[in-house]
Design a protein that fits this description.
The chain is mainly α and 76 residues long. It has two helices and no strands. Helix 1 crosses helix 2 (47-75).
Length: 76
């Protein structure tokens, strides 16, 4: 098992970086599947759609995850 990262802000940064990279890989693949299989339309790669939106999604997921984590810790 990996070592636990001690600093809370470092944990948030690492979680954001991992989720951003995962989103930038998965987001276009899902859209490529959607365009090719479901709608039979052309796939166009744009910076706005496949870099900016996944980064914003990663920020949102990180905030939600760590807010729930902090809320659960406060309840204990």
């Amino acid at each position: 098992m990996a070592k636990k990262i001690g600093n809370k802000y470092l944990q948030i940064l690492v979680f954001w970086a991992i989720s951003a990279v995962a989103a930038m890989i998965i987001w276009p693949l899902l859209d490529l599947f959607w365009a090719g299989v479901i709608t039979h339309s052309e796939f166009h790669y744009t910076v706005q759609d496949y870099i900016i939106e996944p980064l914003a999604f990663a920020v949102l997921i990180t905030l939600v995850f760590f807010c729930f984590k902090a809320f659960a810790k406060d309840k204990k």
